[in-house]
Fold:
Amino acid sequence: MTHLHYLNTTCAVCGESCRFTIPEGAVSVGSRDLDTRPAEPLRSTIYAWVKRCPSCGYCAPDPGRPLKGAVDVVRLPRYRWQLDARKFPKIANTFLCWSIVQEDLGVPAQAAWASLHAAWVCDDEGEDVPARICRKRAADLLQRAWEQGERLAPQEGADEALLVDLLRRAGRFREARAVAAEILEQNPQPLIADIMRLQVRLIAASDRGAHTVAEARRFRRPVSL
Structure:
């Protein structure tokens, strides 16, 4: 059962007092999506994962926590534009601003997660084009993280599996298929192989929809690449 309490803090950027609603006790009951999105009721708490200072617009999981360099990022023109960009839902803008903070502070892996979370918000709002934009950004940031030696997930092959889903759901089928084929040729761990086989089928059908890990476990037969 999810319980609510309130966080009273002081914004680390502008010094203003802030009050945020914090859900507690929510867990994921059921299979996660292929892009790691949790099941309900945890997935519905997404509105609280990143918070926005109502005064200066600083967006972070905890706006009261000082983060070196954040003040300068919040002042950037592209941050200010993103904060209220009309093409994205408000909560998606909040995640994208946090993504900009992480990107500009040299943490592309965390920036990729934030952009993916923005895509989930767009999904919930039925905003397909903005969701695709967010996923393309997340895919680019994920690959930039690899160039810096960063990984998003500890499990071998998990980052690559996430990249395939980002590319597929962004409509970049050719790239997604190439990555999936490369992973399958490397004889990955059983779960990763199951996910890749499902992805190959979805790509062949030009399916950009959300699918779960539970679905992938049902596809254990080899597929033609």
The mean pLDDT is 94. Residues 128-147 form the longest helix (20 residues). The CA atoms of residues 160 and 179 lie 7 Å apart. The chain is about 50% helix and 10% strand.
